[in-house]
Every structure is written in structure tokens, then in C-alpha cells.
Amino acid sequence: MPERLRTDRAPRYPLECDHCQYPIPGDIEDGDDGRYCSVACRDAADDDSTLSDPCAYKRFVSGVEPLDSLVPNGIPADSLLLLSGDEGTRRAELGIELVWRALERGEPTVVVSLTNPPTATLERFYQNGWNVLPALENDRLRILDCYTHRLDDREAFLERRNEWTTFVGEAAADAIVEVRDPSDRRELTNSLTGALDDLEMTETGLVTIDSLDELETVFRDRQAHDFVEDIRATVCKARFVPIVATASTAGQDAPEAEYVVDGIVDLRLTDRLAPDVRLKQLAVRKLSGAQFLPQWVTYEHEPARGLFAFGPNTNARQVYDLSSGQPQPNLSR
């Protein structure tokens, strides 16, 4: 096993700083009540500003089985992660599930919705069997509406909603932030920052953007690229709040923003493992600051359960009922 990959060796620096809790690599700075790695940490501790747990918020486990299997030590919380995939890979469901898993952990979330009106975005949760009404009432879920502005007759749209959509819209009214002009980069940035402040999102929670494809059609020139750079700095790096954005790979060049993100998860359809079934697979292409397994994981999606993985030696006919095209839960686990 290469030396740099060993995990069973004794730690090189066994002593940890009593302030930042990182290993002490050199001489110890003794203080009145502890041992420190630097004068800065010693002085901070003397000023009663000792950090409670500076490492706890820096990584998170997504709760999505196939993704977590590839990143066993967690995803850096200061990451801007891109979900890049073919149509039909359930890319949007993965984004929705990441939000739901954060809500399950009791964390606040913000969804930047460019592809659908807010009620349709919320409906995606219900289609998966995930009831977000309590999260809306408890002010843990905020929707940035970047879609409604494009409607020529908003009143007609509201009048034509059915009973259920009307109920969801009214229940979510306080949680929806309408962005009047998403093409105004400053307004969109301010709307996102305001939602993060309202939900007190620092070192907790998750932001999703659906999608970068729509973002690039809304903005002109390099504004999408610049917007992504801005929020990566002000949200991910400054607040330690991860952002997940989706993008399609169908018949187009890679989005400009791909070059500034911290991580990329590729999703694809393949028929190489089973001629009669187009299997879905995902892999981590890059993830700054974290180790990940460099392999493809075959997965499927099931309402309530979300995305789940199955092994490469599994007979696809055992996972799918080919007459209905639906996964068979009892056989796929």
C-alpha cells in the first residue's frame, strides 16, 4: 500500500492545539490553560475565544447512498459541487434528495429554482414521498423563485392552478422569495445572501441551484461564470455552506462555471453492463480537499428511498421488472 494512502500508521503529530484542535507540528506554545500550536491560538484562547469544535462543520455526509460510497470521509463543506449528467440520469432527483437529506439532519436549505415555478419544485419532493410542509412552516426551507418573472400573465397562471397546487403555493408563500429580475446578477446575489441571513446559515445547511444551464441562458457574456465565482467565495468559502448545482451534458459544451467548481459528479447512462437495460452510473470526477474512490457506481432511484447503489455483478434483470421498467425494491437491496 503506498505510504500516503496508509490509514493505520501512528499519527505524526499526536498533540492537538487546544484552540484550533489541529495537530501541533512544531514547538508548543504553552498557555495558562493549555498547549497551543501558535501565538495566535494562545492569544485567542486567553481572550476566551476558543473555538467549540472547528472541525465538526468542515465536512458533511450527504446521506445519498451511491455518492457517500465514493466519498467515505465526507464532502468538504466549503465545496461548490456540480452534478453533470445525461438526460435520464435522474440528475434533478439527486439534487432534490440532497436537500431532503439536509432537512432530515435538521439543517436549513435554500433552493434556487430557475427551471420550474416554486410549486413545481416543491412537487418534486412530494413525488418522492418527502413531505416538506413542516420544513416550510419551521422556516428551514427557502425557495428563490427565478422562474415566475418569465410568465407573460402571472395572474392567469395562478388562476389555472389546481386545488393541490394552490394549497402548496399558499402554504409555501412565506418561504418563497421572488427574484424579479434574475438576469441582474446583483439582485440574485442579494436575494441569496438575504435568504442565508434569514435562516442563519453559517457552518450549516445546503444551497442547490437548478440549473446552471438555465443560469447561462438568463445571464449574458461571462456573468454566469462570475456569479458562480462570487457565491463560491461568499457562501462556500466564507460561510462553509456547500452549494450543489446541476448541469446537463446533452449536446452542448461544458458550462463555463465547470472550471471554477470544487467538485464534479458525473452521471451517465450506459448499456455496456446489460444489453437490455440502460443502467445509470455516477462517479466523482474531482473533489478538492477530499479523497474519493475513482470508480463508477451503478445506481437506481426509488421513491422515498432515493438513489441506491447495486453491485457490478448484480444481474440487471434481478433489479428491474423489464415489463414495467421499474426497480424491484426487494431484489435490489
TrEMBL record:
<feature type="domain" description="KaiC-like">
    <location>
        <begin position="62"/>
        <end position="299"/>
    </location>
</feature>
<protein>
    <submittedName>
        <fullName>RAD55 family ATPase</fullName>
    </submittedName>
</protein>
<keyword id="KW-0067">ATP-binding</keyword>
<dbReference type="InterPro" id="IPR014774">
    <property type="entry name" value="KaiC-like_dom"/>
</dbReference>
<keyword id="KW-0547">Nucleotide-binding</keyword>
<dbReference type="GO" id="GO:0005524">
    <property type="term" value="F:ATP binding"/>
</dbReference>
<dbReference type="InterPro" id="IPR027417">
    <property type="entry name" value="P-loop_NTPase"/>
</dbReference>
<dbReference type="Pfam" id="PF06745">
    <property type="entry name" value="ATPase"/>
</dbReference>
